[in-house]
């Protein structure tokens, strides 16, 4: 049974970097059949896919156009986890952030427990 | 990329059926058979209920079914039960390694 456990701060100041980590159990971040995603949810923007990392013959990333200039999703094979960094945050980035395993063919399953990140001075 | 359109609410009596629509465009829902549905209880993470338009993950009751016609996908919950009362979201692959979610529907069991 795959489980995802998120960690990271719940409060970030404007213009700073939001950083979250998602630890994987029951699967490998290097799996050639999985992709590892970050998704956020806010009352104003609803559910929004942010980006993913995955390994086939090499590591690849895909990012949503809305955050492409500010986002990095990285794998950490030594700890079997992956991370999200979102730079230059504003109050509009306030949301519950989720990590999730998923590909085009499988849907997003499972999801992490979610982390409420508030951007405020 | 615009969100997929879902009705804000839907309702049905216990034992009845309710169907939720998810309308997109030919660039997402209509262009790919990669539509999924999620159930989300308050304060919890979404749970996958349907993937690839109509496939059910292991453990999801067969009361939940999915379909698609043109640019609109649908989720039907048959034999409504009290625990089905919550929020539901659709999602679709939107090309160019991108995904889009629906606006969400609150299902009420009368």
Strand tally of chain B is 9
Q: Kindly name the structural category of chain B.
A: mainly beta
Measured by DSSP, the beta-strand proportion of chain A falls in over 45%
Give a quick account of the main beta sheet of chain B: strands, pairing sense, barrel closure.
6 strands, mixed
Overview of this protein structure:
The complex is a heterodimer of chains A (121) and B (110). Chain A is mainly β and 121 residues long. Helices cover 0% and strands 56% of the residues of chain A. Chain A has no helices and eleven strands. Chain A has strands at residues 3-7, 11-12, 18-25, 36-42, 46-55, 59-63, 71-76, 81-86, 95-103, 107-111, 115-119. Chain A starts with a strand and ends with a strand. In chain A, 38% of the residues are buried. With 110 residues, chain B is mostly beta strands. Chain B has no helices and nine strands. In chain B, the strands form two sheets. In chain B, strands 1, 3, 4, 7, 8 and 9 form a six-stranded mixed β-sheet that branches. In chain B, a hairpin with a 2-residue loop joins strand 5 and strand 6 (72-77). Chains A and B meet through strand 5 and strand 10 of A and strand 4, strand 7 and strand 8 of B.
């Amino acid at each position: 049974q795959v489980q995802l456990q998120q960690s990271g701060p719940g409060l970030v100041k404007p213009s700073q970097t939001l950083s979250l980590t998602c630890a994987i159990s029951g699967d490998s971040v290097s799996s050639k059949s999985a992709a590892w995603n970050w998704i956020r949810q806010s009352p104003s923007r609803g559910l929004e896919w942010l980006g993913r990392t995955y390994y086939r013959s090499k590591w690849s990333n895909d990012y949503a156009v809305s955050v492409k200039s500010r986002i990095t999703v990285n794998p950490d094979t030594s700890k079997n986890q992956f991370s999200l960094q979102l730079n230059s945050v504003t109050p509009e980035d306030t949301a519950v952030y989720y990590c999730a395993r998923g590909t085009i063919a499988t849907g997003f399953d499972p999801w992490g427990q979610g982390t409420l990140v508030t951007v405020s001075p | 990329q615009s969100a997929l359109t879902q009705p804000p609410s839907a309702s049905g009596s216990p034992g009845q059926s309710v169907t939720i629509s998810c309308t997109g465009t030919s660039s997402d829902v209509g262009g790919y058979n990669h539509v999924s549905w999620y159930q989300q209880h308050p304060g919890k993470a979404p749970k996958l209920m349907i993937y690839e338009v109509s496939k059910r993950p292991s453990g999801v009751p067969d009361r939940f079914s999915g379909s698609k016609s043109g640019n609109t996908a649908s989720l039907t919950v048959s034999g409504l039960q009290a625990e089905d009362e919550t929020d539901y979201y659709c999602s679709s692959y939107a090309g160019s390694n991108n995904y889009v979610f629906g606006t969400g529907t609150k299902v009420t069991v009368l």
